Amino acid sequence: MNDIRLVLTVCMLIISTPLIQAQSLPVGTVALEDFYRRSQLNGLGDSSVSHTIRPLFSGSSTTIGNLYFPDSTSQTDLLKVGYTRWITEDGKFKASILPLNFQLRFNSHNPYGWNDGAMIPAKGIQNLISGGLLAEYGILSVQLNPEILLAANPSFEGFTKEHYDVIAARYYDFYNFTDLPQRFGTQPYSKASWGQSSIRLNYKVVSFGLSNENLWWGPGIRSSLLMSNSAPGFKHLTLNSIRPLKTSIGSFEGQLVAGRLEGSGFDPSIPGRSYLGDSLYLPKSDDWRYLSGLAISWQPKWVPGLHFGLTRSFQSYSKDVGKGLGDYLPVFFRFQNLKRDDVISKTDQYGSLYLRWVWPEEKAEIYFEYGRNSRSGNMRDKILEPEDNRAYIFGLRKFLPFGRRAEEQILVGLEVTQLQQAAAKTVLDARSWYVNKYIRHGYTHRGEALGAGIGPGGGLQSLDVSWIKGVKRIGLQFERYVHNNDFYYYAYIDSQDWRRHWGDISMAMSSEWDYKNLLFNARFQYIKSINYQWYLLQTDPNQYFTNGLDKSNVQVQLGFSYRF
User: Fold this and answer.
1) Is the pLDDT at 517 greater than 60, yes or no?
2) DSSP string, 98-142
3) Spatial separation of the C-alpha atoms in residues 119 and 112, rounded to whole Å
4) What is the pLDDT of residues 257-281, one digit of tens each?
5) Cα separation, 127 vs 152, whole angstroms
6) What structural domains and CATH numbers belong to the chain?
7) Residue 260 CB: number of other CB atoms within 10 A?
8) CA of 285: how far to CAs of 140, 375, 438, 445, in Å?
9) Least confident of 198-207, 250-259, 360-369, 423-432
């Protein structure tokens, strides 16, 4: 509650001052963020914008007016919809009110969902509220956009106590090396944070500042290997482009960050488990982690719509960070084989290469991201065994005509994410994605994965079919989500029990709609879990194939955004 009072007090102090645009559109902004990406498929906007390094900034999108009002092309249009903005007579100081956002989520049986920022994995109802102000004076911009989360966080059926003790021990063998608790404590959960706030100095195409915003790197829509909004935003220094830098060989976008990651402080499973009288949970270090990350995208001028990119990240506990430039910026200086260097092994490294190709003539796009983690061996190993320690994302989307209605279209999208390791030896050596033997928080922040929300060993196949008209969208989504097969093979490798894969099959109906200054969103999803928590109902020892512990979950999401 003290955090909530602090954020509200700062908001009131700023509102009481006399009352841009280095304006940013927060990662995950309902309806608007994907609207700009979809627009490229229709040949609108600047094809040099990759949409792979976000948040988006004003000047880098298809809109000329304001990022929150995509149909506006001038200040006159903004005034017609009631856009609120203050400008001093000399034009040096500008300010505006950021949208008021309210999002509600309800899970009936167990936590489900990702790419939700400050929300936590929880059963029951949780609410996320945000809003604030944006001000600019010269090259200085201040965006105050705090978030308040309130979650009921009731108990639910987690990693079942019916599992044998040896399986529970192997569960902790895995989750003691990453910070992904099933439940965030035993009480209702509330948290106030700076949310999508930042202080920046902006000059031409470059911005430098201090930020708490969520970041997204890579071409994926449902998943990103290194940076997504599955976890809350984290405090970081950032040097980034705010629109593409034009050169003789094409356009470049980029971001360099130095940030602070924190742990959740919760046991992997509540209630905890013990083995032979000893607690299986190994408490993690209280030390915070230093993150150094880099993302670069290049759009060759000879092939409009084609974008190549790379991402890198290093993390280490603050006590292990040296004093040299290479210690603070390892993304530029460290290329050694981490598996064989005792000093470097105190860091956790990830990297990926990606491609996004937009074909406006076909109203389609295709994208791919391939990543390796810090235990990938030397270059010879990477050539001989490219599947070792790898993860990948593949997707495509295409617009289809909707009869004779030129302003309406059908959008079909397919995306596949694979984090499961290809070899059992990789899992046994704790080399799964987002897991690390030394940095036992893994690649997480406050208890959630920084990258793909499906987590270590996960696999996701997603099919979307949507009716589109401008910002408005009505869609159906079908997904198959396989939970942590890396743990599954580790836990049951001795018995070679191939029956226990935990998979979710889901169908969702969703809608996004704009009306004047309001944006509405709604989503209803039914999830059928097969072999929930990898558990079988073995009632007949003579019958090998048997049903598992199957569960049903219903998720409801409702929200609105009021644009001042």
Assistant:
1) yes
2) EEEEEEEEEESSS----S-TT--S-SEEEEEEEEEEEEEETTEEE
3) 11
4) 999 999 999 999 988 888 888 899 9
5) 9
6) 2-562 (2.40.160.130)
7) 15
8) 37, 22, 10, 14
9) 423-432
